[in-house]
């Protein structure tokens, strides 16, 4: 209860956004140690103690009516949970602990309970309040040895929201005995409507992931109406004893105001059907043929092997680090025992979403082992990893509002058939003939190198980007500032790009930045940073540079909806077998709102 209630008040803090450990201390997310000592556990505990004379529990209560006390409502929570347990003998793993009451209630004759937590404060409260036979271990779910199998129940009571859903599902599969049960009781998001990142798991997504992974849902009990009065009760207690709380706990009044506002927001979310409280019970079925797992750095050699087998060339460790290691990134793997047979990667990309800053994810290195590619059903590896990635990362309330990639038409149609993607654009290629080597007298070219970091060049590049961004207020476009140019082009571990600044002769006016790539196909404009009106001039200089470097042609790839801006510079145009997707799997900006709005070039892809 206390963890969720505080979510909104700290939602903007970056270090809390990806909390992954069970019952992680909420006080750790606060600005200073002094505030952390009193916020929020001590406040709730003291308020309840003043209101009822006792405060042994700090979790949601189930209120059968508005006349009962918090203690009685919390007892109802325990009794409901206990009624869902199988008869003894029974081995239970409790992941995340409250003050020890739940563990004590679970410790019945012939019940063997193992409790774990990664919260030191929680462990101390457990020692003070739990019955002598109850014990807790300071350990995370991730580090439990899978040899400790044979549990009849793996239980998450108001702790699952701090652990990645895949970790919950995979560990439960490993630790449960045949037909064992996974029980998850606590808060969930019921729908996501805003771009703000939510810290609660989406209920329907957890159910779908569990069922795809080898569980069957045997109960989905909606307890939202019974749990929501918890917020009202706390608001009343804090209001009644406000001055006493400030005095006894040495609080700043603003801390209580913030806490009250957080409770009101959460109460409203329950009323609006955005948040809810539920008890889920799953039964383990036959172990699935494949299992999903977030790819860890120490498993990247498996990725290298699959990459080489799929694309017939090698990904170097330096390229992996450049793509996945240096930025916020995520990668899902599909495993058949110890063999990686599929991979779905994503790399964070800062964008302007119709003029507003947002974060998108660029889909990268989607591959399935050739021996498994024929399985393109909703139970196959491609569907399993794509659906899981979209559920985890893309859409309202997720780390990334939208995603993009560059699949061909065949792969696009497979994803559309499964309801995963919708098409929002296509790529075209425009080709020009090179020009002579004679200079252009009104403008001049200046090469940009990594050594320019301490010069005026970064400011000039950022100014060019700002002018381009002003022209693309009604578009979706990846940020092209100096930091991006440095990472994407100047510091690429294997590819060489020619980055050129175009300026007027006899003056300081900058016209734009060109990024060119030379290979067997010719000279390619892979990126462009300038006001759109400067495209003809930059194409002219690119044609000259192609001629200077002995290339047979100059070409550029751009989303079809912006091709006309390049066509004014002449050239011939052809459609490419490259589509631009957007998620249709979860609640996200609609396909119609995104269609024909992306500005994407070759440089926006990770493979050119």
Taken from the alpha-carbon principal axes, the silhouette is elongated
CATH topology value of the largest domain:
Aminopeptidase
Q: Supply the CATH class of the largest domain.
A: Alpha Beta
Mean pLDDT score, rounded?
A: 86
Major sheet attributes: 7 strands, mixed
Q: Low-confidence runs (pLDDT<50, min 5 residues)?
A: 1-38
% residues in beta strands? 25-35%
Helical percentage:
25-40%
Overall description:
Pfam families: Acetyltransf_9, Methyltransf_11. This protein is α/β, with parallel strands linked by helices and 608 residues long. A hairpin with a 2-residue loop joins strand 10 and strand 11 (356-368). The protein is elongated and about 90 Å long. The two termini are 49 Å apart. Mean pLDDT is 86; it is low at 1-38.
Briefly summarize what is shown.
The protein has 608 residues and is of the alpha/beta class. 34% of the residues lie in helices and 27% in strands.
Give the helix/strand layout.
Elements: H1 2-5, H2 33-38, H3 41-52, H4 70-83, E1 90-95, H5 101-106, E2 111-117, H6 120-129, E3 136-138, E4 151-157, H7 165-175, E5 176-189, H8 203-213, E6 215-222, H9 224-227, H10 229-240, H11 242-249, H12 253-271, E7 275-284, E8 291-294, H13 300-311, H14 317-325, E9 329-336, E10 339-353, E11 356-368, H15 381-393, E12 402-404, H16 409-417, E13 421-432, E14 443-447, H17 457-471, E15 476-478, H18 482-490, E16 498-504, E17 510-519, E18 522-529, H19 535-548, E19 554-559, H20 563-567, E20 572-583, H21 591-594, E21 598-599
InterPro entries: Acyl_CoA_acyltransferase, Methyltransf_11, SAM-dependent_MTases_sf
GO molecular function, one term: S-adenosylmethionine-dependent methyltransferase activity
Keywords: Transferase
């Amino acid at each position: 209860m206390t963890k969720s209630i505080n979510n909104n008040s700290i939602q903007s803090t970056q270090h809390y956004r990806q909390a992954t450990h069970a019952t992680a201390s909420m006080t750790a997310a606060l600005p200073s140690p002094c505030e952390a000592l009193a916020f929020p556990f001590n406040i709730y505990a003291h308020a309840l103690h003043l209101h009822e004379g006792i405060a042994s529990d700090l979790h949601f209560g189930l209120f059968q009516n508005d006349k009962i006390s918090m203690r009685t409502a919390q007892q109802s929570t325990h009794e409901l949970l206990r009624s869902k347990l199988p008869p003894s003998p029974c081995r239970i793993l409790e992941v995340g602990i409250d003050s020890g009451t739940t563990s004590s209630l679970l410790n019945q004759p012939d019940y063997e309970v193992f409790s774990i937590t990664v919260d030191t404060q929680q462990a101390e409260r457990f020692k003070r309040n739990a019955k002598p036979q109850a014990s807790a271990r300071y350990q995370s779910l991730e580090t439990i040895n899978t040899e400790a199998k044979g549990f009849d129940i793996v239980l998450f009571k108001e702790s699952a929201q701090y652990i990645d859903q895949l970790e919950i599902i995979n560990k439960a599969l490993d630790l449960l005995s045949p037909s064992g049960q996974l029980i998850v009781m606590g808060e969930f998001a019921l729908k996501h409507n805003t771009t703000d990142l939510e810290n609660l798991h989406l209920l329907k997504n957890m159910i779908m992931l569990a069922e795809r992974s080898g569980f069957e849902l045997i109960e989905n009990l909606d307890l939202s109406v019974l749990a929501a009065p918890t917020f009202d009760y706390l608001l009343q207690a804090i209001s009644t004893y406000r001055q006493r709380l400030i005095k006894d706990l040495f609080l700043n009044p603003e801390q209580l105001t913030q806490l009250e506002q957080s409770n009101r927001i959460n109460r409203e979310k329950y009323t609006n059907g955005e948040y809810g409280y539920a008890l889920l019970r799953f039964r383990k079925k036959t172990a699935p043929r494949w299992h999903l797992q977030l790819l860890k750095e120490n498993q990247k050699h498996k990725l290298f092997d699959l990459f080489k087998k799929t694309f017939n060339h090698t990904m170097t460790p330096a390229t992996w680090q450049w793509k996945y290691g240096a930025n916020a990134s995520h990668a899902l793997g599909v495993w058949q025992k110890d063999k990686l047979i599929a991979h779905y990667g994503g790399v964070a990309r800062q964008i302007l979403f119709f003029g507003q800053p947002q974060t998108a994810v660029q889909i990268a290195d989607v591959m399935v082992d050739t021996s498994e590619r024929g399985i393109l059903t909703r139970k196959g590896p491609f569907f399993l990893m794509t659906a899981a990635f979209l559920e985890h990362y893309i859409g309202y309330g997720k780390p990334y509002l939208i995603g993009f990639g560059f699949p061909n038409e065949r792969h696009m149609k497979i994803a559309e058939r499964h309801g995963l993607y919708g098409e929002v654009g296509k790529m075209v290629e425009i080709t020009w003939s090179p020009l002579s080597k004679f200079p252009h007298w009104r403008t001049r070219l200046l090469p940009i190198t990594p050594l320019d970091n301490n010069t005026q060049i970064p400011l000039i590049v950022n100014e060019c980007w700002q002018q381009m961004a002003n022209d693309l207020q009604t578009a979706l476009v990846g940020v092209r500032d100096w930091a991006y140019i440095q990472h994407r082009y100047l510091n690429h571990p294997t590819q060489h790009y020619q980055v050129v600044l175009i300026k007027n002769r006899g003056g300081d006016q900058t016209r734009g930045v060109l990024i060119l790539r030379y290979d067997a196909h010719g000279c390619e404009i892979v990126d462009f940073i300038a006001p759109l009106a400067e495209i003809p001039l930059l194409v002219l200089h690119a044609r000259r540079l192609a001629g200077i470097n002995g290339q047979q042609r100059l070409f550029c790839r751009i989303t079809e909806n912006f091709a006309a801006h390049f066509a004014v510079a002449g050239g011939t145009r052809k459609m490419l077998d490259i589509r631009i997707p957007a998620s249709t799997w979860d609640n996200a900006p609609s396909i119609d709102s995104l269609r024909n709005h992306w500005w994407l070039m070759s440089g926006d892809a990770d493979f050119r």
